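Priority: medium. Attachment 1 of 2:
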């Protein structure tokens, strides 16, 4: 794929690559330089894209699930073939270290293969009749054209989490990527084209978010919106969906607690917490946001944790061996620095990091640890989305669970323990869509992913991921 700061990349509509009137600049957060431009869609083109999607629906849903699965496997093959190139694109536009970008391509490939197979499992059922002469069937049908809105923090894999199940279910999709990271979506469109996906079944709507969202909400052709992003925009979509009663799937913000119990394997607890906190430079919806350590092991944990954080290498994700990249933009960096300042005002102590990385371009923050973080500090109450790890202590399991649940969010949570009874109690009592026990990277294609409370509605991945794009219809047949 070719891109440059002088010539905009075309967008993919109705199986064609088109130039438009408006352009968006793409900035590398490691250098602060514009390195690419892309064309942006206007309202008329978006309406045409919706019409095209609608026109492709009958033929796409009419194919066998096996056929759709074969095509999705081909998209996965293309991603695999272009793994290094697409990994580099992700690092350029998002900043994450190259190894993590390639890992994102691998996970996207795996999601595509999972849903390629799941397509064949959209089972209905037959129900025993209550009245003589009747038969009852439950039939699953694709919901129709889907508007998918994806964020910048995992620009490829979070788009694929919507696009793959929607297409597997028999739905055409229009993908709106984040304006910060449109190139990964263009690469995905190239893979769709190369795999032979019909033009109307997958299209790209890069452009102004409010215009695109308004059209998805008001246009009756769009039958569902699947959104990943901030809780604030999720709330706007809920308000906007009221008139048309548009179905929404919402993957929103998180505030993940990590509970570290005195019976844990300490080395493992440190390692898994490092992954949960610093992967993707802390810019993950499931990132560890609040670390609660049982008092009796606080000093030992903190000593090992700080040593591990200080071993992390921070720099341009294209350079070898980096663990932490830049934040996405200046305002993300300012937000993180202001959370650190606020934590210190509330009595927290910066044990390492705490400031912008000096002597470099790019939005780099030194990986930071704050001990003695107060429950009222902003970093314990609001999503941090940065490599900042605030630590506090607790006495009992009951207290740990209560404080972990004291949040309007409930996307993910983590616990480090070797007590099996405690594992069961936490599984039942922690309010989150995902709980990683001794596991800092719990997400997998086979298991459902999503949030409770203000972290969202619905689930992606697993068998639930396909279900999100299917309608359930009862058919009653009389006179049998
Ligand atoms: P965001 O501002 O909500 O943006 C996400 C997407 O929504 C982008 O494509 C954005 O487009 C679009 N958007 C912006 N305004 C919109 C509007 N009024 N209507 C419809 N779409 C709109 O979120 P962000 O700050 O980029 O992403 C970080 C947030 O996403 C964090 O809160 C994080 O926790 C959450 N997140 C959740 C999950 C999950 O699975 N639960 C996963 C990843 C991230 P533009 O880029 O063009 O503005």
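Attachment 2 of 2:
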């Amino acid at each position: 794929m070719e891109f440059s700061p002088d010539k905009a990349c075309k967008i993919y509509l109705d199986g064609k690559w088109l130039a438009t009137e408006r352009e968006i600049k793409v900035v590398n957060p490691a250098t602060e330089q514009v390195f690419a431009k892309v064309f942006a869609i206007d309202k008329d083109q978006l309406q045409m894209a919706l019409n095209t999607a609608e026109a492709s629906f009958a033929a796409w849903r009419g194919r066998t699930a096996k056929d759709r699965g074969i095509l999705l496997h081909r998209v996965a093959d293309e991603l695999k073939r272009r793994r290094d190139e697409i990994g580099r694109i992700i690092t350029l536009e998002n900043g994450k270290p190259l190894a993590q970008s390639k890992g994102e391509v691998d996970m996207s490939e795996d999601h595509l293969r999972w849903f390629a197979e799941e397509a064949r499992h959209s089972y209905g059922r037959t129900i025993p009749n209550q009245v003589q002469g009747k038969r009852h069937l439950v039939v699953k049908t694709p919901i129709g054209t889907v508007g998918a809105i994806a964020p910048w923090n995992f620009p490829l894999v979070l788009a694929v989490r919507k696009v793959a199940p929607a297409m597997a279910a028999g739905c055409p999709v229009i993908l709106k990527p984040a304006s910060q990271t449109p190139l990964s979506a263009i690469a995905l469109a190239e893979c769709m084209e190369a795999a032979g996906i019909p033009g109307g079944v997958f299209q790209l709507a890069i452009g102004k978010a409010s215009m695109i969202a308004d059209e998805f909400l008001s246009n009756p052709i769009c039958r569902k919106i699947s959104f990943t992003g901030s809780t604030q925009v999720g709330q706007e979509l809920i308000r906007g969906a009221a008139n048309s009663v548009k179905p929404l799937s919402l993957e929103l913000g998180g505030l993940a607690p990590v509970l570290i119990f005195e019976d844990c394997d300490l080395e493992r607890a440190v390692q898994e917490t490092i992954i949960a906190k610093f992967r993707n430079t802390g810019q993950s919806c499931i990132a560890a946001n609040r670390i609660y350590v049982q008092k009796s092991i606080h000093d030992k944990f903190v000593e090992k944790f700080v040593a591990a954080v200080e071993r992390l290498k921070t720099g341009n994700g294209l350079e070898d061996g980096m663990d932490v990249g830049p934040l996405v933009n200046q305002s993300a960096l300012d937000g993180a620095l202001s959370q650190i300042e606020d934590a210190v005002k509330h009595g927290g102590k910066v044990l390492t990091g705490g400031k912008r990385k000096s002597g470099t371009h790019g939005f780099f923050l030194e990986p930071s640890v704050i001990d003695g973080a107060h429950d009222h500090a902003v970093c314990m109450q609001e999503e941090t989305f940065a490599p900042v790890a605030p630590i506090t202590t607790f006495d009992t399991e009951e207290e740990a669970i209560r404080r972990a649940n004291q949040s309007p969010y409930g996307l993910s949570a983590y616990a480090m323990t070797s007590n099996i009874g405690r594992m069961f109690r936490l599984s039942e009592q922690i309010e989150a869509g995902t709980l990683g026990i001794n596991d800092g990277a719990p997400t997998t294609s086979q298991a459902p992913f999503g949030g409770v409370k203000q972290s969202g509605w619905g689930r992606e991945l697993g068998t639930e991921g396909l279900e999100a794009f299917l309608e359930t219809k009862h058919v009653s047949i009389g006179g049998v």
